[in-house]
Specification:
Distance between the termini: 32 Å
Helix content: 40-55%
Number of strands: 12
Largest sheet: 8 strands, parallel, barrel
Order of helices and strands: EHEHEEHEHHEEEHEHEHHEHEH
Shape: globular
Number of helices: 11
Structural class: alpha/beta
Strand content: 5-15%
Amino acid sequence: MEIGIDNFVSQVMDPRTGKTVPSDVRMKQFLAEVVTADRSGVDTFGIGEHHHRHFLDSAPVVILSAAAALTEQIRLRTAVTVLSADDPVRLFEQFATVDLISGGRVEMVLGRGSFTEAFPLFGLDLADYDSLFEEKLGLILQLREDPHPHWSGRHRAPLTGQGVYPRPVQERLPMWIGVGGTPSSFARAGSLGLPLMVGIIGGDPRRYLPLIDLYREAGARAGHPSESLQVGIHCFGFVGDTDQQAADDFWPGYHRTMSTTGRERGMPEPTRARYDAECGADGAFFVGSPETVAGKIVRLAEAVGGLARFTMQMTNAIMAPESMHNAIELLGRKVKPLVHSTAGITTHDVPRNGRLRPISTQSNRRTTT
């Protein structure tokens, strides 16, 4: 199982001064975080895409390019690319170029996006939300196989064999499908035989098992080998020296982000009690000491029938740089080895029915109230 980080490159407030870090300084801080992840043994780092005043990641491919030039081992990807609002040809060319810069370490996680700001920004109709994604997904998958595609559709000009270059280092540029909770999205990913990344922002993650089963069943019906049906899960997470320290460090920035962007989307303001519950054994937040986080990852992998990848959404709007770097180092140097030594779980080691022992409701609970 790969262990990774996702970051939405949000604006950050310095907790010592109460002032927002200038955008150029914040971007340098972010790139330093990717370098720390690379040196600490974290397997993969994802960058989000938002067209919003609180975020700096409207051009994730540009950021990935900078990260590729600064790192050596870590796999770099989006989390997610809002494919519906982009041109697949231009997007493929950009990722292929970054793949050359990185020496073959780039991946794409393709999704429709939970934020919708990109649609009016680029003159797109939200009524085409589904058809845009389906059509563009088909095109970008064809581009991966054929440098001279012949294609036509509703939402862009046809292709009549023009060359799409450069080609990436990797023979087939890895493409995952990022999903939320829509059953048809799980089934589509399975039918196409594409790896699946499930974004979970709250509640018991095990409730996604029926949808993951749907993905695997759709893939099997389409004739795809089980080893191609990889499952990843993405949740909020943060690692500290103790459960209490991790929860206390992550809470202020989490609260600020969810209180601002959440309010704009009609979501209730988060409470500390609800946050603490999500950090518990049955919640979707992987916040705690290395032992607590690793144990929770292993039990989740068992409960859903195996994971190829687990990524932690570590974006935080109020965080001292040294605290973030410490969390990243703990994830790579302690959590990852603990996960591997505890279970060694991969998608090939765990029965496909996913019905292993349930996550204990008694172990790994935080001691605070």
